[in-house]
UniProtKB/TrEMBL annotation:
Annotated source species: Cicer arietinum (Chickpea)
Membrane topology (UniProt): Multi-pass membrane protein
Protein name per the record: Copper transport protein
Main localization of the protein described in the UniProt heading: membrane
The encoding gene: LOC101497958
PANTHER family: COPPER TRANSPORT PROTEIN (PTHR12483:SF92), SOLUTE CARRIER FAMILY 31 COPPER TRANSPORTERS (PTHR12483)
């Protein structure tokens, strides 16, 4: 039975029928997985925003370092490659965001807290350095 209100239990089904927790160990491991995926989501968003800044040709702020990306784009093939990489990052990031949203819709309180804490930790480490102000992106966790 699907819950329609928040509940607190170690028994939860996440995303697929075979991902069910019935013990504290499986529940804690599932919460840890949600936390790690949430942090990874923020890392992907950070990389996507950096790539978007790079592709737009804007100057990077002094605090944003990109040692692996060269600033010289030569020809339309390189620009197409950057656009394609940005589209792939956007697609993967969106898919992870929607999976996180669907996990929260399990209405399990622990899953909700794990995902929100993971998003906050990821934001703290990967996105709180001010680069979001340079690109007009949505702050929605699944956009």
């Amino acid at each position: 039975m699907m819950h329609m209100t928040f509940y607190w239990s170690k028994k939860v089904t996440l995303l697929i029928d075979s991902w069910k927790t019935d013990s504290w160990t499986s529940y804690i491991l599932s919460l840890l997985a949600c936390l790690i995926v949430s942090i990874f989501y923020q890392l992907l968003e950070n990389r996507r925003i950096r790539l978007k800044l790079f592709a737009s040709g804007k100057q990077f702020p002094a605090e944003i370092q990109t040692p692996l990306i060269q600033r010289k784009l030569v020809g339309s093939r390189a620009k197409l490659g950057v656009k394609l990489a940005g589209a792939v990052l956007f697609g993967v990031s969106s898919a992870i965001g929607y999976f996180l949203m669907l996990s929260v819709m399990s209405f399990n309180g622990g899953v909700f807290i794990a995902i929100v804490v993971g998003l906050a930790i990821g934001y703290l480490f990967f996105r709180s350095d001010g680069e979001d102000s340079f690109v007009g992106d949505s702050s929605c966790a699944c956009a």
